[in-house]
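@channel sequence for tomorrow's demo:
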Amino acid sequence: MKLTFLGAAHEVTGSCFYLEACGKHILIDCGMEQGTDVYENEELPIPAADVEAVLLTHAHIDHSGNLPQLYANGFRGEIHATGATCGLCEIMLKDSTHIQLFESEWKNRKRKRNGEEPIIPSYTMEDTYNTIKLFVPHNYGERTKLFDGVEFRFVDVGHLLGSASIEVWITEDGVTKKIVFSGDIGNVNQPLIKDPSYIKEADYVVMESTYGDRNHDVRPDYVRELTEIIQTTFDRGGNVVIPSFAVGRTQVLLYYIRQIKAENLIKGYNNFKVYVDSPLANDATQIFNENMYGYFDKESMTLVRQGIKPMSFPGLRTSITSDDSKAINFDEEPKVIISASGMCEAGRIRHHLKHNLWRKESTILFVGYQANGTLGRAILEGATEVKLFGETVQVNAQIRKLSGVSGHADREGLLRWIKSYEKKPEKVFVVHGESDVVDLFTNTLRNELDLDADAPYSGAIFDLKNNVWAVEGKAIEVQTKSRQKKVLTVFERLLNAGRRLMVVIQHNEGGTNKDLAKFTSQIESLCDKWDR
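structure tokens (generated this afternoon):
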């Protein structure tokens, strides 16, 4: 009964936790690191083929993005998530894979010109399609047996459509422990989705701390503030360009703009156009529309029952093809452009920034968290020029931030969530925050709530049964990755295939002599073919 911290340890992204329980190997989240990595993450200490199940808190790529890599390395277990998360992951993992493959292709063109070996992508689109087949949907509140001695339940945490905290019960040698993985705790009073549900008891809690060092600003009138930004920008003859996360944030923006249009709040531009230039965002909006019941909040369901689509309105334009996207910048009328990615690191938003950053008439409106090292963070913090597609672009546009729009709970919200426990947990593990924020929030839990709280580094192992650290993690700062590491990816996949073969052999223990003899013959034939 041990828990190993692999990702989002003193960092915001790359959530991944390895749980050993009842002889089984389970991952909670399998996220991709985004932005600048600060500390080295420990590798999964077992072959991917030995992982028997994944429990997924929600669909965001920093929690789900390495699932195709896990599959490529040999994982063939089930991935358990809410129904909405399963739907969102189907589109988000495909999109993420497309970006990875595109970036590899772009880098390889440069490497070829320099006479260097090409980078081999560590997983393919086929791996992603096969990963999606492993998803198993669940409803909120269903307590499910995962293995003998291991049960779990998803609880609505109000961060994203389908997002959940996960309760896990483990019974080993007559001892039962309950551990809760908070996932990303949602902000209250968000449109469309419900407020976080609160859990009353647990022995151990793994808790996020993204905004553990501050409270959001006093909740603004989002409709009024967004109206003012659009009106003043249009009056200057510019565009409002919004780098937005395709899943969650885009749908919230559409909800607000629908209200602005319904109340005719923009004067002189009654039929202004709103472009959603992101195939992923458009697909995600469809997933939202298909998962209203059981996920939408009361206000949104009231609109639905009145025959009103909460995220649709006259003037809404969806851009699918690259030609659709290019055409937007030939439309000279003032308009709103919502495009991904939300941190400006990839995708179509970079083209819209190239066409609008230099224009003093336009506004770049940020509506979500910008990680350290991202282009969005640089622009928001006052960069006077940026590089886009090899060109230097001056930053002349107005840079605005829609205050308080966050899918994450702030410090007050995080404390409200942990205070809901009627009995103090034996220990709280603080994760998913920038390093100084994690430490600060851990001290807050210790000093203000008298909780036994720690902020582990990657590689730390905790013995849940005996309530002691088995291994202390270390703060190992990231060094420049060598190119040779990437060139060897194909051989690494071969090694992983060999490890998976060993797992399959072990799973066949007790099979019939006839089947085992046939399997042995096939392996020996393969070895004879490739033995050099």
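heads up for whoever presents: The longest strand covers residues 164-172.
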